[in-house]
Amino acid sequence: MFTDGLRPNELFRERSPYFPGLVEKEKRKKRLAEMREKGDDIGPSRKTLKRNSMKHSACQQKVVIDCSFDDYMTDKDITFLTQQLQHSYAANRRAENPLQLYVCGMRGRTKQRLDSIGDYKGWDVFKEERDYNEVFPKEDIVYLSSESANILDQLDDRKVYVIGGLVDHNHHKGLCHRLAEEKGIAHAQLPIGQFLHLKSRKVLTINHVFEILLRFTETKDWQTSFLAVLPQRKGVSVIEEVTETRNNGSEPNHAVLEKRKCETNEQNIEPKEDPDTR
């Protein structure tokens, strides 16, 4: 029984054993208040998140994460995949103008794993059990792959860009590129080598690739997008010639660009699990 005449905080303590949700709500409010006091970023409010939906987004660029690789991954790899999907979704939800995010090929263990995540069914994404090439016309699709000889220059909102949801490319290197070619799908790689030096043959996680595309829709600048997303531990340094070209507005030397294209082809930038997350 509740006691009459209690102060609000005393009444809360009296009622909390009967209403566990009140305890969690109060803890969250206290945690947010402490973060505000410290000046920490608490992220957008729930009202803002509701406004920042794909439906209301000014950005109509479609991006697919292809999750049809169940047979190529271990249970551990699938766990890493779902974590990277969560990071991608979180970045999109916090963007002022989210991308139109599709998760295709949702079947088997990957779907089971995602279904076990409490809030997944409420995600603001387009979920498809069908493969991406069954959802979109073949001529509209561009598959992102480091093996591609084509360099992605701009994003076209009439196109659909596909990120391979395959973790651990050490065992299946080039698989996404090969499958795209077998299906007659256009492909391209991100222009990292034209703008940045990487100290080693580092690979990008699925969420890194997604966030780079997201930032590019906001900035229209590849270098800015790469630097905003790629962790410093990947040994990123800027190619100075490109920076100078962007600053003075002149055209870059054609031979230099061709050299960078060759260097880009040597870098493995297909999505993979980040070794530091293991």
Automatic annotation (TrEMBL):
Region (Disordered): 34-53, 246-278
Gene Ontology molecular function: any one: tRNA binding
Gene3D superfamilies: 3.40.1280.30
Record's protein name: tRNA (guanine(9)-N(1))-methyltransferase
Gene Ontology CC, one term: nucleoplasm
EC number(s) given by UniProt: 2.1.1.221
InterPro entries: MT_TRM10-typ, MT_TRM10-typ_sf, tRNA_m1G_MeTrfase_euk
